[in-house]
Amino acid sequence: MAGVCVPVSRRGWTATVAAVMLVAGVITPGPATAAPSGITPPSPPSSVSSDDYPNDGTPSGGVDVTGTFEVTAPAVRPGKVKEYAYSLDSGVLIAAETVPARTSDRGATISVSPKHDGINVLWVWSRDRAGRISAPVTYRFTVRADSGPGYPAVPLPPAITFPNGSEVSAGGQLTVTFDAEGDTDVTSFRYSIDGTGLGSTVPAISAGGSATVVLDVGNVSGSRPIYAVAVDDNGSRVSGLSQGEFTVLPATSLAGTVWDAYFLPQAGAVITLRPGDHQATSGADGGYAFTDLTRGAYTVTATLGDRCVASFALEIDSQGQTVDIFVPPVGEGSDPICSD
């Protein structure tokens, strides 16, 4: 018997933006910001419009040429809105400014000065008196190239992606890619995790290209932010802030008991997990345990003396997994093979 176990676009390049998009005057709502049970955030603005920068694709204005944008109050419970938060291009609330809602119609007028030509995106959120935030509405408009007092323009915020997925176990490493998506003025990126200090820098593989970094995430579990900006070739022009989100999963553990065929605990069994060559030895009560394991597929082997008594594959994907190992009687069939 064998052992048994139990975006936006500019100059032909694109960036992804997760938002409520206002395109040709039509608003499609995206996911609202989560609110505690029984508490409802305000509704998003009904619309955003501008005579200075229409959203019909016609290039208007210029870099650093101020335009005004009219925000129409939500159709549902407009009286809840105290103010509107807004951000040009970045879509990051931490970088947003605010403007109070008018008492007359609960709408607002926003004045912004675009920092680059091509397509810009104005993000607008409703905020109530308790500080709750609505889902965003975005307004896309095109700024005329080679014009305005601020030309040449600053870069657009970089796209942030996670090539190997946005989940990682505590103590593991996260792969992150920053992408200028064709803006040849960009030659590097600044970034930081959890805060906006932007204390780390990585060069793009080429002007307008991308850069990939591998980061140690530490042991703080939960949803966590990463922030980044794009920087031009002489470091004098910096984009708005981009934000990505990743999740650090708590480290996993594995425990169990080594038994013989008569359910007597077996001490001194050496249990090995590969990859990683993690090892534990069963105690007098037959128990063994592993902690701080990375989620993933493992091969588990158990030896008792010079015998291989168990070998099997195991997917470790949760905290507190329990797997008992049973030692087959000597001479009853072939022992499993424990590969080195």
Short description, anyone?
This protein is mainly beta and 340 residues long. Helices cover 0% and strands 45% of the residues. The chain has a 6-stranded mixed beta sheet with strand order 5-4-12-11-8-9, with no helix packed on it.
Outline the secondary-structure elements.
Blueprint: E1 4-5, E2 9-10, E3 13-14, E4 21-23, E5 26-28, E6 47-49, E7 67-72, E8 81-88, E9 97-100, E10 108-112, E11 118-128, E12 137-143, E13 159-161, E14 167-169, E15 173-179, E16 186-193, E17 200-203, E18 210-216, E19 222-232, E20 242-249, E21 252-259, E22 270-274, E23 278-281, E24 287-293, E25 296-304, E26 307-316, E27 321-322, E28 325-326
Parallel strand pairs: 4-12, 14-20, 21-27, 21-28
Antiparallel strand pairs: 1-28, 2-3, 4-5, 6-7, 7-10, 8-9, 8-11, 11-12, 13-15, 15-18, 16-17, 16-19, 19-20, 21-24, 22-23, 22-25, 25-26
Note down, in words, how this protein is organized.
This protein is 0% helix and 45% strand. By secondary structure, it is mainly β. Strand 2 (9-10) and strand 3 (13-14) form a beta hairpin.
Radius of gyration computed on alpha carbons: 28 Å
Strand order of the largest sheet: 5-4-12-11-8-9
Q: Poorly predicted ranges (pLDDT <50, ≥5 residues)?
A: 1-38
Number of distinct helices:
0
Order of helices and strands: EEEEEEEEEEEEEEEEEEEEEEEEEEEE
Q: Structural class of the secondary elements?
A: mainly beta
- How many beta-strand elements? 28
The span between the termini is 22 Å
Strand content: over 45%
User: How does the major sheet shape up?
Assistant: 6 strands, mixed
The coarse silhouette is elongated
Specify the helix fraction band: under 10%
- The average pLDDT value, as a whole number, equals 85
